[in-house]
Write a structure and sequence with these properties.
By secondary structure, this protein is mostly helical. 70% of the residues lie in helices and 0% in strands. It is built from 18 helices and no strands. The longest helix has 33 residues.
């Protein structure tokens, strides 16, 4: 009897074990794969902050080693490239030594974040060093510019920003209520290309100011570029003003590459500084263009090219800045700490398609036709502003009349171009004020000769009329739609 009970217990035990075993081991493996996929996609959600930091540290080690090599290159550059400036020599030796030390520190998980940011700032210094020491050799200028850009790229751009909160990577790519993603690569590519145009023009002028080349070519205004670069206005700066422009364009190019497809919410601080770098500098470029005929009495073709590139970047940047501000306001309303969100980003639910763009590059002809139909009045306003800048030379206007037309013409161009961004369309109303001024200026100012006064009044009336039309708005911008009038 006892043996029979034991036999029954053994059978029940075997049955229980069979029930515990999976019926299909293959399905179990697939389930396990699914869990691991969730964990791997969730290196955003399935990992804690420490795991994220270790992963980022491990993935950045190769870039840290590259920076170490760049530091060694920099230390040996003065002797190899024949530097003749003591300032440049010691700057490169000290900067290279710092990069080597910081790269060794970055190899430690404990110091990785701080060391990589410090390396980035050394790279920024390298962009300025040839200007501060007025590098007498082209090799020194080129070496510091290239090495500085690479050090910045390998410290914070390529291996991803150190200390970034990876949990914010999950979420929407398209801002709430928007019809496209303002941070997509298709949106950023034109900004980077415009930055490259400005950089090349500025570097050429910098080479002349630093004495690396003996003459500077101007295809339209003869000796105008040389006159501007040697003017008292340019000499007001303690460093080469063209070189300062080149540094700005280089930083804009690098920041154009920085961040992912949703950086409007993952890196608000970076979008803010990028916007500050582009928008105010665009205004400064216009002011420099204004100062050419007023203070120097000459035009500079390359300055105009660099200024146009900078001005065109403003409307291309504006939508991303607006999306970032909307996100910060929304986060604040939801009770999230504003300062933390500004520096570390946040997440919201929404569309994941980062390919959405207001421009259809698959059919460029139709795309530009649609854009022209929406903005033709702003293009005409910009054209009238350009004509106004040259009108004093045509009508021999002088004194305050000429100064007024140079200044107001440039400002009309500036605000007309900014208004070409749909999110900035309301800016066109500012030109109504300038148009009104042009109509009354001949009655107030001296210096209008012959038809010049009538020209000013007619241009003013035309600018007012063309500034009234809004044009078609193709995109949707959430709560910002209210301000697009």
């Amino acid at each position: 009897m006892n043996e029979h009970k034991n036999t029954l217990n053994e059978k029940k035990s075997d049955a229980a074990m069979l029930e515990e075993k999976p019926e299909n081991p293959i399905l179990q493996d697939k389930a396990g794969d699914g869990d691991s996929k969730k964990m791997s996609h969730g290196s955003m959600s399935g990992m804690n902050g420490g795991d994220h930091n270790k992963m980022m540290w491990h993935d950045s080690l190769w870039a840290t080693f590259v920076n170490l090599l760049l530091g060694a290159w920099l230390i040996t550059s003065p002797a190899t490239l024949g530097y003749t400036s003591a300032g440049m020599t010691w700057s490169d030796i000290a900067s290279g030594s710092l990069i080597v030390i910081l790269s060794v520190a970055a190899a430690s998980h404990k110091f990785n974040t701080y060391a990589r940011w410090a390396t980035c700032f050394v790279g920024i210094w390298l962009l300025f060093a040839p200007l501060v020491f007025w590098s007498p050799t082209a090799a020194g200028y080129m070496n510091d510019t290239i090495v500085g850009a690479l050090v910045i790229a390998f410290s914070i751009l390529i291996p991803m920003m150190p200390g970034m909160d990876m949990s914010v990577m999950d979420g929407a790519d398209v801002p709430s209520g928007w019809s496209y993603n303002p941070s997509s690569w298709m949106q950023r590519a034109p900004i980077i290309l415009l930055g490259l145009v400005g950089l090349l023009a500025s570097r050429y002028m910098t080479a002349y100011q630093l004495g690396h080349i003996g003459a500077v070519y101007d295809p339209f205004f003869g000796d105008g570029t040389r006159a501007v670069l040697e003017s008292d206005v340019s000499k007001m700066f303690p460093i080469s003003d063209a070189g300062l422009g080149a540094v700005s364009y280089m930083l804009e190019i690098l920041m154009g590459f920085m961040g992912g497809k949703a950086r409007w919410r993952t890196m608000p601080w970076m979008v803010t500084f990028f916007g500050i770098l582009v928008i105010p500098l665009g205004t400064v470029s216009v002011i420099l263009i204004i100062l050419q005929p007023l203070a120097v009495g000459a035009w500079c073709s390359l300055c105009l090219l660099a200024g146009i590139a900078m001005l065109a970047m403003i409307p291309a940047t504006l939508d991303e800045v607006v999306a970032m501000l909307q996100f910060l306001i929304q986060s604040k309303r939801e009770g999230k700490p504003l300062w933390h969100t500004f520096w570390f980003g946040g997440t919201i639910e929404g569309k994941k398609d980062s390919g959405l763009t207001p421009f259809d590059w698959s059919n460029p002809t139709a795309m530009f036709q649609t854009w022209f139909v929406s903005n033709w009045n702003l293009l005409v306003s910009a054209g009238l502003g350009i004509w106004l800048m040259f009108a004093p030379s045509v009508f021999n206007s002088n004194a305050r009349a000429a100064d007024s037309e140079h200044l107001v013409g440039a400002l009309i161009v500036t605000f007309a171009v900014i208004a070409m961004a749909e999110v900035g369309r309301i800016v066109r109303f500012i030109n109504i004020l300038f148009g009104a001024w042009l109509m009354v200026a001949p009655l107030i100012l001296n210096g209008y000769n012959g038809f010049a006064g009538w020209n000013s009044a007619i241009i003013g009336l035309a600018v007012i009329l063309f500034s009234l039309r809004r044009g078609a708005i193709r995109g949707q911008y959430g709560g910002w739609n209210f301000y697009i009038r």
